[in-house]
Design brief:
By secondary structure, this protein is an alpha/beta fold. The protein has helices spanning 6-24, 62-75, 143-165, and strands at 26-29, 44-50, 79-82, 91-100, 103-119, 122-138. A 6-stranded mixed beta sheet has the order 1-6-5-4-2-3.
Amino acid sequence: MKPINPRGIRLTLLLINIFIVSAIQLNSQTSSDSNELAIAEYKTLPILIEGINDNNAAHLTKESVQTRVELRLRSAGLKPVAASSTPIPARTLYVNVNIVGAGFDVDVKFYRYAFWIVAGDKSGSGMVSTWDTGTTGTHGNNETFILGVVERQMDIFLNAYLKANQDDK
């Protein structure tokens, strides 16, 4: 049996720590173009919350995420409505929170109904993501931490959404 090399263990632990710390707040935002968020009736916004499994380590619930998202929208002067309350909404705010073990991922996306021509007389239509922001990290079994991350991602969305839709007059 080989003796354990303390230097090798320290190096392995250092690499693991670097990976964890760098993964804590990886952020992405795919667009800063306000046209992707501009809509005529921007004050009412259908929302869809998904991805939260019932038995997660952080004890996060879909209801707690829904409450935070709705409160953020209302505090910005917007009216959240369930995306399922309209037959085919022209737009939808989609919030997805995934928790796997000690890791989590939060995605906030803005979907719009779109129509496109593929070739000649062929066309398609459906909901497409025109804007998104997200982050991933570790949660330490802390529901409050993840809800804070949801709020920060909502703030990024609301800043861009309101900037694209409010008149500067």
